[in-house]
Specification:
transferase, about 350 residues, five-stranded mixed sheet, lipid biosynthesis, alpha/beta, four-stranded mixed sheet, lipid metabolism, Peroxisomal Thiolase, Chain A, domain 1
Length: about 350
């Protein structure tokens, strides 16, 4: 018997900007078609933040919703982790900016950079702090304003990405429930396949770097696709086996939303019916670290998740990175953990 505390998700919240960019809008911007985008990716539209909105603004809305749902005040938070590759600025961290907006005066705050796998790295990190007794409540936010680093003249990437934020309050839950297993991984040799080449210490911002378009997101789509199919399946298998749960016991798969064909390969591999998969990429495209928490929040709101369900959250992305968790759903705080 493990004496470890049971840690899980106490509540979720999400926010997506109002402005919708459809495939038909994109047809007027680059040489593409709704037919190509839908058949190759499954995406129909995505949300775009306003010029005034930065990542911390989106994160604030999602975080506020999650705190309200859990009936927790910002002052109760011990830590804030923001997973993003589109921070408001290099520093201070978006987590510090969010801490100030929320009035979470007691909370330690840091950003975490694991691209589309950021939310999974974030909840895994939060769990360690709670399991060892240092903290009781940790807010994890996956947020991206990818539209700000997308080149709307490049059809290879501009049809794929969107903006949004998803948040979760992590804390101690009823014994036996919550996160049952985690799997995280990285392969830095594939770093150049998905990156923003300039703006850091390797190639600081300059007139030349801007003229060369090096501040836009770059992706070698085909290679990332093959990697994604491979790790999505292996990471899912790893968390199932670590938790001693069979694929027939999966109640809901909440995958990273990069491409419907990548999700379909996992659905086939694990023999899942459509009602056991959370999909939102048709409406939001790929929101990187926000994709999984937004999909989870929508599934919860739609009544698709009930106590005791086995959820698998699985993602992959730049780094290259990947991660998964098996979560036995329960939002009831453990006795005495408030
Ligand atoms: O979240 C991080 C992880 N990201 C991912 O997992 C994304 C993984 N990759 C993908 O989802 C897919 O590789 C893409 C959606 C990016 C591309 O789909 P694909 O089936 O791999 O297409 P492709 O790259 O093999 O391109 C096929 C053709 C090319 O034309 P040629 O060279 O064969 O003449 C592209 O130029 O499709 C062309 N193409 C387009 N055509 C119309 C690329 N983008 C477009 C477009 N509209 N938007």
């Amino acid at each position: 018997m493990s004496a470890k505390r049971s840690v899980g998700i106490l509540s979720t919240g999400s926010y997506t900007p109002e402005r919708v960019l459809t495939n038909f809008d994109l047809e007027k911007m680059v040489e593409t078609s709704d037919e190509w985008i839908v058949s190759r990716t499954g995406i129909r539209e995505r949300r775009i933040s306003s010029p005034e909105q930065a990542s911390s603004d989106l994160a604030y809305e999602a975080a506020k919703a999650a705190l309200e749902k859990a009936n927790i005040s910002a002052e109760q938070l011990d830590m804030i982790i923001v997973a993003t590759v589109t921070p408001d600025m290099s520093f201070p961290s978006t987590a510090c900016l969010l801490q100030e907006k929320l009035g979470a005066t007691r909370a330690a705050a840091m950003d975490l950079s694991a691209a589309c796998t950021g939310f999974l790295y974030g909840i895994t990190t939060a769990t360690q702090f709670i399991q060892n007794g240092l903290y009781k409540k940790v807010l994890v936010v996956g947020v991206e304003t990818l539209s700000k680093i997308t080149n709307y003249k490049d059809r290879n990437t501009c049809v794929l990405f969107g903006d949004g934020a998803g948040a979760a309050v992590i804390g101690e839950v009823t014994e036996g429930y919550g996160f049952q297993s985690f799997e995280l991984g990285a392969d830095g040799s594939g770093g150049s396949l998905l990156c923003m080449p300039a703006g850091g210490s390797r190639t600081p911002a300059s007139v030349e770097s801007v003229e060369q378009g090096l501040h836009y997101l770059y992706m070698a789509g085909g290679e990332v696709f093959k990697f994604a199919v491979r790790v999505m399946n292996s990471a899912t298998e790893a968390v199932l086996s670590k938790a001693g749960v069979s694929k027939d016991e999966i109640d809901l798969l909440v995958p990273h939303q990069a491409n419907k064909r990548i999700i379909d390969s996992a659905v086939q591999r694990f023999g899942l019916s459509e009602d056991k998969v959370a999909i939102n990429l048709d409406r939001y495209g790929n929101m990187s670290s926000a994709s999984i928490p937004v999909a989870l929040d929508e599934a919860v709101k739609a009544g698709r998740v009930k106590e005791g369900d086995n959820l698998i959250l699985v993602g992959f992305g730049g780094g290259l990175t990947w991660g998964a968790t098996l979560l036995k759903w329960c939002t009831t705080p453990a006795e005495g953990s408030k």
